[in-house]
Amino acid sequence: MPDAVAQVRSRGGVARTSTLNHRGVGRREVERLVQRGHLVRVKRGWVATPDADALLVSCARSNVVLTCVTQARRLGLWVLADDARCHVAAPAHAGRAPTATALVHWARPVVPRHPDALADPIENVLAAIAACQPFECALAVWESALQKGLVRPELLGRLALPASARRLLDEAEVWFDSGLETLVVPRLLWLGLPLRRQIWIHGHRVDLLIGDRLVLQVDGGHHVGAQRAEDNAHDAALMLLGYHVIRVGYGQVIDGWPEVQELIMRAVAQGLHRAPGRR
Questions:
Q1: Are 141 and 129 in contact (CB under 8 A)?
Q2: What residue segments make up the domains of the chain, in order of their start?
Q3: What is the pTM of this model?
Q4: Which of 185, 218, 79, 221 is nearest to 140 (CA)?
Q5: What is the mean pLDDT of the chain?
Q6: Are 272 and 209 in contact (CB under 8 A)?
Q7: Where on the phi/psi map is residue 142: left (φ > 0), alpha (ψ -120 to 50), or beta?
Q8: Is residue 81 within 8 Å of 139, Cβ to Cβ?
Q9: Homologous superfamily, domain 180-269
Q10: Going by fewer Cβ within 10 Å, which terminus of the chain is more open, N or C?
Q11: Dist. CA 210–CA 231, nearest whole Å
């Protein structure tokens, strides 16, 4: 494989010809590789490998970068938004949507974008999500990024974040399971009860302890087979210890929250969140 092609692959399969020139690949060499089919011309100043990511190629052609929930998904973050549009960012008065259904973010980035970049850095992704998504959905993505170690809160705090992102930074915390739990806590704050996430009881971590004794367990897709059996055994042990357990799944939290909330409200009304002897 020609060295120039390896350099393009190392940049995600799409690269500026000026960057290749700077790295010692002459214009004639680039043209030769294009003619032989090792590279394809994206537009003037950009080339790509024939098997390059179509989204990155479209971004190079349109002078935009991937951002917001689109890039968050590509980074493996927990994204709730059911949004099929491609979210991209562009400088003010520059760039265009790569497709008719793409959503362009025009806000000034909190971290400068390198001219070679076709995807936003994580700080810009989170800022775009803060401005674009509902609060609880954005909070789930932010906490997912913190949990994966893609960014550190103290470094985010030094940036000139917009107010929407600053609020998320103040609220976001690092936990160990899915973003479903992130959605639940803000929805229950109105109860005015202590809400403790990811605490250990009887040798296992529980998703949420409401008050003293009401446990809410939120199952993701991995709660099957042996995991399900272990969960059931722990639920039984908790109930023998005087806890009351409500276990719900993804679909209930996302599509049936009113019913889940009613279960919790009725449990609280019966005092199931209180330790014996407490009123």
A1: yes
A2: 3-52, 62-171, 180-269
A3: 0.79
A4: 79
A5: 89
A6: no
A7: alpha
A8: no
A9: VSR Endonuclease (3.40.960.10)
A10: C
A11: 18
